[in-house]
Design a protein that fits this description.
Low-confidence stretches: none
Mean pLDDT: 95
Number of strands: 8
Largest sheet: 4 strands, antiparallel
Number of helices: 8
Number of domains: 3
Distance between the termini: 40 Å
Amino acid sequence: TWKRKGYSTDVYTNVAMDWLKARDKKKPFLLSLQFKAPHHEYGHAARYDELLAGVPIAEPPTLYEDVHRSDSNLKKEFLKRTKFHMLLSGGNPKQTKEGNAYYFRHLKDKAPNEMWKHDPKIDKERIRVAYQHMIHKYIRCLTGNDDNLKRVLDYLDQEKLTEDTVVVYTSDQGYWLGQHGFYDKRLILETSMRMPFLIRYPRMIKSGSVSKDLCINVDLAPTLLELAGLKAPTAMQGRSMVSLLQGKSPTDWRQSQFYTYWGAPNHYGIRTERYTYLKLEGHPAELFDRETDPDQVHNVAANTENKAVVKRLEKELLKQIREVNISQNNLPGNN
């Protein structure tokens, strides 16, 4: 336990740097440095108070989406039960109809993060300023992450450890920043489901290379074990990404990513290179074609032309369920 004062991201990095400098330099090391700040309310250090002050940040295309009239029951059911919308909230007995939405949670915030001037009688105006409030705080918070990560990378350079050190920059999931009017995470939709994953290992990975193969979070452990020269336990799920890091795509690599969520609402499904297909408790299956609709505005499962697609994806979903070895009774909404 460390009792230190200061901004959390700075303090965590201070502890990490102290450990790095005091470690036995004759031995390999593993450092896991995690930042809590990029969660609501996106607290940031005072030195970022004026960062982008008064500068409008670009809005996501679906910020003003009318989710109440959506053809996706997933979005509508989520909206009924969540507070994670710019303006709307309700359905949860612990929440009021509006009072827990982002706008109302921060309407009376003080400088440097006060709400911008707006017409409170116009919903679009309220969503606009709620988004600008959130995204400015988020950018200021994430800048703290960037600056502290630089401290660690600079140390590796100074100690001539860069070539021999694997650096992974990732998260436990994605995060909505106004898409569909939401913030936070939780659903199989793109901005929520997709997680950032950057990895640097100069002796193996070509700088600036990008892989478009479908990976999932359980692939990380087998990857790190192989890089360390160890075998993954047979009971461990996931598959090493080392071949992908070397620029080679195995012919038998997965064709879809399996997703489950127990919560509000219960749902599960798969994501392929083009489609997102999901099952939602109490409603028909849903389909999003991200090639024709990258922002996932419309559920097109009922469209006649997608009948064969749905059939193929249902087969792939069942394959994933078998491979993960989860029983039907244990899937979200089925127990």
